[in-house]
Amino acid sequence: MAETVLEVQNINKFYEKDKPTEVRALQEVSLKVEKGDFTAIVGPSGSGKSTLMHILGALDKPTFGSVYLDGEDISKKKLSSLFKIRGRKLGFVFQGYNLISTLTALENVMLAVEYSGKKINAKNAAVDALTVVGLGERLNHKPTQLSGGEKQRVAIARALVNKPAIVLADEPTGELDTKNSQDVIDLLKDLNRKEGQTFVIVTHNPEIAKQCKKIIELRDGKIVAKN
To answer: Which of 12, 71, 114, 206 is most deeply buried (CB count within 10 A of its CB)?
Structure first.
């Protein structure tokens, strides 16, 4: 039986709750992410994809419902107390890379280790992570010296460096051309297959989504299909 890494049960997210302008971003959403999954979350603009990703990543809390990470209900914790959980158990890859321009690739990845508070050698872990993503020869390059695809690889290394239970990727190919987009997805698939790394990817690109093992479709804040 597969191990459940992340589970949400009947989560709802309302903005301006109980007011005439109330927005129901998510309604009664339930899903499981199991160890080794490679899952896409898809849906039109305004469907609730980003809201769901923020809740899965402990960046926001549901109005109602429960969120379990490695069996622990984190939905009732204060946002301030979730910082350490994110650093230790979750990895993030964003559309815009979010690299610090004045730091080298190595330093950007080391920073994730330092923020996590893990008692590991930050430099050695960062070198290993960058080597895994094919940037072992680009350790001392700054973001301005890297291509878009290389910058996203640095971001992936940063997400992997603390060996998280799950990596959440929000439109990871959104700023890349077709070739670099496919290269990044091939890398994620390779990491999933060889390392057993669990991924959840938000994407609007059907060509990306169909390469995932599972697809969850959102519409108007509700899951309308799973396959």
So the answer is: 12
